C-alpha cells in the first residue's frame, strides 16, 4: 500500500532548501537522503523565489494562494503596518473602506472588497482582530525593564559609553520673536501655510558619556535659502524638503555620512533612535549599529527627551533674544526702538528668565519663558504616510523587476555640477580650518584609472557631469577643469556646464596638469590628492612639475567628493565564478608558477597585483562588479612560496572555492585576506620578506606603492600583464568561436534593420535593443563588453556616443548609421566590432570617406613587420590614405582585447602616441584595427575588426628577427554600396573579396544550418565580389 503523501509547510520547505544549500549533495542525492520524490523536491526549489516574495507571515501554511489583486494586497498590508505603528484601531469596516480606496487609486475598477477577499487577505498575512484594551497605546512598564535588562545591557557590554549615541529630531520655530509670539501655536502641527515657512527640523545626536556631540543636521523647506546665499561654509549639515520634515531618504543619507566618518575613524558605534516611520533600517552600514526603542517609549527611554532638547531650545532662544537686543545694525529689521539701546550692554551672560524680564520691562510682549521655550514642543518632525505614498511605493517596487536585473542600469539621480562644486568648496574650507592645513589646500584631482568603473567610483561624473570613460578633473578655489582625449571632445562639450574648462589633450596649447595648477595657484600652494586614485607614475610626474614651480603635492586622508556625495552607492560585492581550465587553457597553479619564475629572474621576493583584470586572469576567476568587464574588487600578492588573495571567500561560488582549494597540482599556499586590510597586511608581508625586491606596477596607486621602501621598489609592468596579453591556444580558439557567434547575430541585425527602416519609426535605441536580443540567442552570451554605440547622422560624429532618450534619433534612409558593439562570452571570448552602413543612397563625399577609411584598414590588416614592432610605428599605416586627402581622426587605431576579460587591454596598442609600457607586438596578441573619420555635426565612419597577431610567411628572415602580420577574427561584411572601387588598388580589391569569401563560407554555413534564411540571403548579397 502506498504511503500517504505529506504536505510540507512553508517553514519546512525553507528548512529543506537551507539544508540543501549547505550540503554538497546533488538534487537527486539530497532528495533520496530525505525520502522526498525528486520531482517534488525540484518543485520546492522552483517555488523558492515565489514563496520568498509573497510575504507569508504564517510559515505553517502549506499552500500559497496569491491575490488576483496583488497591488491592492501590497498597499493594504503596507497601510496596516503603518496604522499599527501608530496604534490606530482597525475594524473590519475600516479595512474594507481602505481596500476600496487603494483599488480606486490603483485603477482596479473590478475590485470588490467582499468578505471572502478580506478573509483570504487576513489568512494570507496571518492577521487577526483583537479587542483593544484601554490605553493600549500607552507604554507597558514591563517593556521598560525588559529593554533595559536585555537590549541596553547587550549594547553596553559590546560598546564603550563613548560609542553609544542617541539621535532624535525636534521641531523649531526658528524665527519667532517675542513681539510676534502667540499661544495659538501651542500643540499644533505645522503642516502648511505661512507657519511652515517659520519652522525647521533639527536632528541632534550625542554620546552616552557626554564627550561628543555630532554636528547637527538642520532640515529646512528651501534647498537654497536666501540667508545662505553667500555662505562659504556652515557649522552644521543642511538639507531640505517641501515640509521641512525628516523623511526616510534624508535619514538614510545622514546615517551613511555618519557611517563613512566613523569607518574612517575605525570606530564601531551604536545609534539609539525611536521607531517613527521615517527611521527606516539602512542596509550596508559598516560602523553604525541601529537600535530602535520600543513603540511609545520615547517619553521614558529617549535620553534626548529628558531635558536635553529643551535645554538646546532654551539656549537657542536666549541667543535669539541676545541678537535682537544687540544687533544695532539690524534695528529696522528687528524693530528695536531707540529707547531700548540701554539693553545693548551687559546682556551676554544673563539667563533666559532675566532676559525675558528685561524685555518685558521695555514694552515687549514676552510670555512666560517656559512657554516660549516649549512653544514648538509638539511640532511634527516626520510625515504621515498617505495613500498616494503607499501606492507610489507599491508601483515603484513592481517596476524594479527581478533580482537578476543589473543595478548599474538604474537611473542615476541628477546632480547639479554647480551644487557639487559648491559642496567641494565648502568642504575644502571646512577641512582647511579643522585640520590647520595651508589655506591653499584647494585642488582636488580625481583620476579614475580604470576605463570602466563601478557606480561607487564615478567621482568625476558626479562632480562634473562628464560620463566619458577617460578624463581627469581638477578643482581649485576659483577654477574647475577637465582633461580628455579626442574621442570625447564633442561629448564633453555637451555634458560640461559653464563651471568647467575643457582641456583637449593632444591639441596645441593644452596645458599639462602641473602647468595649469602653477598658473592658477599662488606660489607655495599645497595640492591635495586622494593617493588611492592616482597612479604612482602620474604622482611622480606631477609632484616634480609642481615642485619646480614652488608648490607641493600632498596626500589627503579623506576624499572630499566622497564626503559631499551623500547618496554614494556602496561598493558592489557580487558573486565570483570560476573560468574552467578548458576555456582558460592553463590552471591557476601553472600561471602562478610561471609568475614566480619571472620573479626569481628579477630578484623579487614579492609581487603586488592591483589591476583587477590581472587578478581575474591569474586565478581563472570572473565576476561582475564592474559593468561590461568580468572582474571583481580584490588585490593579490605573490611571494616565492605563498599567494595572498584579498577578497571575502564568501563571495566565491562553490566551483570557484573548489578550484582554489585544489592542491592536486602541488603545494600552493593560498591565504585569504580581507579586502580592507590591504595596507596593514602588505606592510606585514614586506617586513616579513625582508630580502629581495618588491615588484609592483608604476600604474598602481601612489598609496600602495608608497608602502614599499624606495630601495626595494621594482617599478615595472607586472609579468602577468604580458602573459595575459599573449593568448594561449585555447584562448585563441575561444576568441574565434566568440567572433563567429557575434557575426551571426550582426548579420541577423543588419538584415532586420534594412527591412525595418522603411517604417520610418526605427530609432537608435530600438536598434540597440534589437541587437541585444539577437546576441542573447547565442550560446554562452553574458552581455555587452561595452555600451553599444548606436548612432545615426550627426550623432555618429561623437566618437563614443551613447543614445539616450534626449539624444535618440531615428535611423533613416538619408543618413549614415554607425554601430559599434561588443560581447562577452562565458566560454572565453570577448568581441568588439564596428560597422558603418547607409540604407539609402550615400553622397559622393560619404563614399570617398568610407573608402579611404577602408583603405587604411586594409593597409594595416595586411601589413608585414618585424616582431616586437610597437603600435606607435604602425599607426600611420591606417592614416596614410586619409592624410593624402587632408583628413584624419583623433583617436588611436587599435587596442588590445582580453579573453573573456576587459575589452580594452594593455600593455600594447596602436596609436599616434607612444605607449610607455608597449613591449611591441608578438604572436598570440589580439588587437583591434579601427581607423575612422568624423565630420562634425554630420556623420561618423569607423570600420573595426579584431585581429590575431600571427607569424608571417616571408621569403627571408633578416637576422632571424621573425616577421608577423594580422589575421582577422571579425567576420562581418563591409558595405559595398559605400565603397568607391575607383579609389582601390587591385591588391585592396582582392583583400576585400577574400575577406568576404571567408565571411560567406564561415557564417553563411551556420546561418543555413540554423534555418536563418533571410539573414543568409542578406549575407550573400553583401558579400558579392567587387568588380
From TrEMBL:
Concerning InterPro entries, the annotation shows: Creatin/AminoP/Spt16_N, Creatinase/aminopeptidase-like, Creatinase_N, DDE_SF_endonuclease_dom, Homeodomain-like_sf, HTH_CenpB_DNA-bd_dom, Pept_M24, Pept_M24B
Alphabetized, the UniProt keywords read:
Aminopeptidase, DNA-binding, Hydrolase, Metal-binding, Protease
| HTH CENPB-type domain: residues covered | 60-131
The answer on whether this UniProt entry bears the keyword Nucleus reads: no
Q: Where in the cell is it found?
A: Nucleus
Instruction: Show the Gene3D superfamilies listed in the entry.
Output: Creatinase/methionine aminopeptidase superfamily, Creatinase/prolidase N-terminal domain, Homeodomain-like
GO CC term (a single one): nucleus
- Lineage, top-rank taxon, reads Eukaryota
Coiled-coil intervals, chain numbering: none
Name the Gene Ontology molecular function terms of this record. Answer: DNA binding; metal ion binding; metalloaminopeptidase activity
UniProt lists the family membership as follows:
Belongs to the peptidase M24B family.
**Protein name per Swiss-Prot or TrEMBL:** Xaa-Pro aminopeptidase 1
Q: Name its species.
A: Araneus ventricosus (Orbweaver spider)
Q: Which gene encodes it?
A: XPNPEP1_0
